[in-house]
Design a protein that fits this description.
The protein has helices spanning 3-28, 43-51, 53-60, 77-85, 103-108, 136-144, 195-204, 236-240, 260-271, 273-282, 287-293; strands at 37-41, 64-67, 93-97, 111-126, 133-134, 161-164, 190-191, 208-213, 224-226, 228-229, 247-255, 285-286. With 296 residues, it is an alpha/beta fold. The chain has two domains: 37-118 and 249-293, D-Maltodextrin-Binding Protein, domain 2 (3-Layer(aba) Sandwich); 119-240, Periplasmic binding protein-like II (D-Maltodextrin-Binding Protein, domain 2), CATH 3.40.190. The strands form two sheets. Strands 1, 2, 3, 4, 6, 7, 8, 9, 11 and 12 form a ten-stranded mixed sheet that branches. Strands 5-10 form a two-stranded parallel ribbon. The longest helix is centred in the N-terminal third of the chain and has 26 residues, at 3-28.
């Protein structure tokens, strides 16, 4: 082998070594990806975002992590507000709530509120109960304690077991469309901490009566029946026509500096065609129709 050939081979080996080092460093370098966007809050609004998760990730181009399956007190609206206020360029967040926030509360906490839909509040009884309809005034009478036996409502001679979930006591709407103050509810009642507990207790007692949002999935093991109120079923159309009296407003919340991708996610929920399918499934009245029907 000539000296010249040896020189050329040596140079080639050096070049290959340098190239191998470059490729190795490139492959080892971490891939820069966009961070996850986190949303959290009330279960009944979580259902909307969870149902639309694939569409929202496609529109925003981001991975979304959602928390809200649990409906326990302390994991709802306040958790949504707390999550929204944790937003930063390095940790993009938003929240969702099932109770309306006043302008004063939103302003003092530096929050932006994005209404999504009205959700009917079901009045529920055990499936064994022969009652299928109740008047709005009778519902309020049961809640106050004016009516304590089903025979007063045309049913069997047995006590009414009242089951309530009186969350977010300082905010308007939700159960306050039934009675406006917790002090007006009868003392002798079962006050549960979650929607799952509500379903369980109403299923347990033949003479029970309770209330729950329409987005809750009862499950095959539950023994609940949804009542009509004054002959009106709790549907989006009856909310639009102001025929059904009990409901609450579901909203998204952010701090005052949401990212463009967070706004894309919320805007898609508010206006995207996929949301209307979810709304039909859960009898929700989308915000555009709700705002035309109800005063803000």
């Amino acid at each position: 082998m000539t000296r010249r050939l040896k020189k050329q081979l040596g140079a080639g080996v050096v070049l290959l070594a340098v190239f191998a080092m470059f490729v190795g460093e490139t492959l080892a370098a971490p891939v820069q990806t966009k961070k996850v966007i986190t949303g959290a809050g009330a279960h009944f609004a979580w259902v909307i975002f969870d149902s639309l998760k694939a569409d929202l990730e496609k529109v925003s181009g981001r991975t979304i992590e959602l928390h809200g399956r649990n409906s326990t007190l302390g994991m709802g609206c306040n958790a949504g507000i707390k999550t929204a206020l944790q937003n930063s360029p390095d940790k993009e967040t938003f929240g969702f709530v099932c109770c309306p926030l006043t302008d004063k509360e939103a302003g003092s906490m530096k929050l932006r509120v994005y209404p999504l839909a009205l959700e009917p509040i079901y009045i529920v009884v055990n499936q064994a109960n022969p009652i299928s309809d109740i008047s709005a005034e009778q519902v309020r009478g049961v809640m106050r304690g004016d009516l304590v036996n089903w025979k007063e409502l045309g049913g069997a001679d047995e006590p009414i077991v009242l089951v309530t979930r009186l969350h977010c006591k300082k905010r308007s709407g939700h159960w306050k469309t039934i009675l406006p103050d917790v002090k007006q509810f009868r003392q002798q009642r079962m006050n549960v901490k979650s929607a799952a507990d509500m379903v369980q207790r109403v299923s347990d007692f033949k003479g029970s009566l309770g209330h729950i949002g329409s987005t809750w999935t009862f499950g095959a093991q539950s023994r609940l029946k949804v009542l009509s109120v004054d002959g009106v079923m709790p549907t989006a159309e009856n909310l639009r026509l102001k025929k059904y009296p009990f409901y609450r407003k579901l909203s998204a919340v952010t701090d005052n500096h949401p990212s463009k991708d967070v706004l894309k996610i919320i805007h898609e929920v508010q206006t995207g065609p996929a949301f209307h399918k979810v709304a039909q499934k859960y009898h929700l009245l989308p915000l555009q129709e709700a705002q035309e029907t109800y005063a803000p």
